[in-house]
Amino acid sequence: MITHAVIFAPIGQASRSDQIVQRLTNAIVTGLLEPHEQLPNESDLAKMMGVSHITIREALNTLRANELIHTVRGRNGGSFVCETVPESGKNLHPFRSISTDYLADLGEMHSAIISHSARLASRRMTQADLNRLLEFTEVLAKAETPEQRTQADMRCLLAIAACSQSARLANQELQLQAEWASLVAALYRSRDIHREVIALYAVLTEALASHSEQAAVQAASQLIDTFTEYLLEKKMNYHSE
């Protein structure tokens, strides 16, 4: 699944173990990784995330200590997401630790990536590309759970970045989604937000279909800016929920 490809995407250079812990913690406490879900084994995780086995083991030990995962030994064993997040784990929720300034900056960065991707896609995408994006938006429209909606949305955004035919933009979008996906999953619990996003994607795909560069940029910017506004609102109301 595309969401899992984002969660387990390669890690950067600094504080690798801490980055893995933060990324997987965000995915667990926001529901992207579901209760009882089995994580890839240590060897596969090391390859997927581009780190050593020692780094993966250290990160998994921290997640176990935080009671976010548990390990079962034996033939059908492995590391699994715990059924419930303990009170201490709730304190690790990204809306508790992340600042409004950071959220605003993340949204601006994402808006820049998707807006420019839409600009290039309006010039370069083929009918096959458009049909594929329309299929993805249809999946998003029919998705019923926050995880399914998030997964479908990430696929749509990656498709737009890919249609820019810029490998650098597509790679930046993939890296950014490691943070973005766990945050918007909380928004997709709202049916109203889900419906609003579907309408915004309809405007964007129409602009791309007509190869209208200005309209595509405006629609892409409005899509990400809408998410950012809701994320900031969610952050400000987090402690009162």
What report would you give on this structure?
- The chain has helices spanning 2-7, 16-29, 42-49, 53-65, 87-90, 94-97, 100-124, 127-142, 146-163, 167-187, 191-209, 213-237, and strands spanning 69-72, 78-81.
- It is mainly alpha-helical.
- The chain folds into 2 domains: 2-90, Winged helix-like DNA-binding domain superfamily/Winged helix DNA-binding domain (Arc Repressor Mutant, subunit A); 96-240, Up-down Bundle (Four Helix Bundle (Hemerythrin (Met), subunit A)), CATH 1.20.120.
- A two-stranded antiparallel ribbon has the order 1-2.
- A hairpin with a 5-residue loop joins strand 1 (69-72) and strand 2 (78-81).
- The longest helix is centred in the middle third of the chain and has 25 residues, at 100-124.
- The protein starts with a helix and ends with a helix.
- Residues 14-84 form the HTH gntR-type domain.
Distance between the termini: 30 Å
Structural class: mainly alpha
How many individual β-strands? Answer: 2
Binned, the helix content reads over 70%
Mean pLDDT: 87
Secondary structure tally, helices: 12
Shape: globular
Strand numbers in spatial order across the main sheet: 1-2
Low-confidence stretches: none
- CATH class of the largest domain equals Mainly Alpha
Our Rg estimate from Cα atoms comes to: 18 Å
Features:
241 residues, mainly alpha, Arc Repressor Mutant, subunit A, Four Helix Bundle (Hemerythrin (Met), subunit A), 2 domains, two-stranded antiparallel sheet, globular
Ordered list of secondary-structure elements with their pairings:
Blueprint: H1 2-7, H2 16-29, H3 42-49, H4 53-65, E1 69-72, E2 78-81, H5 87-90, H6 94-97, H7 100-124, H8 127-142, H9 146-163, H10 167-187, H11 191-209, H12 213-237
Antiparallel strand pairs: 1-2
